[in-house]
Amino acid sequence: xxxxxxxxxxxxxxxxxxxxxxxxxxxxxxxxxxxxxxxxxxxxxxxxxxxxxxxxxxxxxxxxxxxxxxxxxxxxxxxxxxxxxxxxxxxxxxxxxxxxxxxxxxxxxxxxxxxxxxxxxxxxxxxxxxxxxxxxxxxxxxxxxxxxxxxxxxxxxxxxxxxxxxxxxxxxxxxxxxxxxxxxxxxxxxxxxxxxxxxxxxxxxxxxxxxxxxxxxxxxxxxxxxxxxxxxxxxxxxxxxxxxxxxxxxxxxxxxxxxxxxx
Length: 263
Ligand code: OAD
Prior knowledge:
- The structure is a single chain.
- By secondary structure, the chain is of the alpha/beta class.
- It has a single domain (4-258), classed as TPP-binding domain (Rossmann fold, 3-Layer(aba) Sandwich), CATH 3.40.50.1220.
- Helix content is 35%, strand content 16%.
- The protein contains 11 helices and 9 strands.
- The chain has helices at 4-14, 25-28, 42-45, 48-51, 54-59, 61-77, 82-95, 111-114, 186-198, 217-223, 250-258, and strands spanning 17-22, 100-105, 121-122, 125-132, 138-139, 173-177, 201-205, 227-231, 244-246.
- The strands form 2 sheets. It has a 6-stranded parallel β-sheet with strand order 3-2-1-7-8-9, sandwiched between helices. Strands 5-4-6 form a 3-stranded antiparallel β-sheet.
- Helix 7 (82-95) packs parallel to helix 11 (250-258) and helix 9 (186-198) packs parallel to helix 10 (217-223).
- It is elongated and about 65 Å long.
- The two termini are 24 Å apart.
- The site of 2'-O-acetyl adenosine-5-diphosphoribose has 27 residues, from helix 2.
């Protein structure tokens, strides 16, 4: 009998149209904390409603601003792991072999791009984009150019001032991430659905599947006929629905899954 990893590797070798859906677990081995993992998850230490909503930002702009700037600095010091680079190499392999691979991520980091993936769909926005809270116009902000240092720990005693919008007189900059209660970027979301409807293989890596609507995407692909493979060291609600559940981490298992294809 073939082991699950061997069957999944066979599907990988046969697939021409692939969607990889990722969550915070994808970047965990790059030392970027996840949200809901016991002890290490960000939402274990901080309340999402205090930091990840527009109301929270309006109530305490300095605190919420500092939290996002801190996370963007953390990401700048992180490096893509073997899982990110394997996905980037797989996308390139398919592109030169009459296939395609779409990465749709809930992550607000840029580790997929730095791991070699192109055209990544950021379902929850990006920590490196900013726009005005009032006039919504995009604006550049570089924490390093502003003299802010990367701290390993979030320091609530070392709070930053919000930054004024360069376009309008009244606004301050907000991070270009999706907060609770907000719509997902419609282009990214509809591109993900379109790719899922064409896919013959959907691979879900490192998401708890607890946040909608992103959590509904894997099954859209499966219902449209794709094989569904999940990779996660911890069993999730999707694990029984998936055609194959690979109980492992992204950096350990992605290279193994692609070993023969990319050899
Ligand atoms: P979660 O923190 O909810 O889930 C992380 C998942 O990654 C868990 O299922 C872990 O078991 C798994 N995991 C941990 N380490 C891993 C590893 N090395 N390799 C593979 N998997 C690993 O993160 P998300 O599902 O991404 O939204 O959370 C979804 C959304 O909730 C986030 O985008 C964020 C958050 O609130 C917003 O901020 C809008």
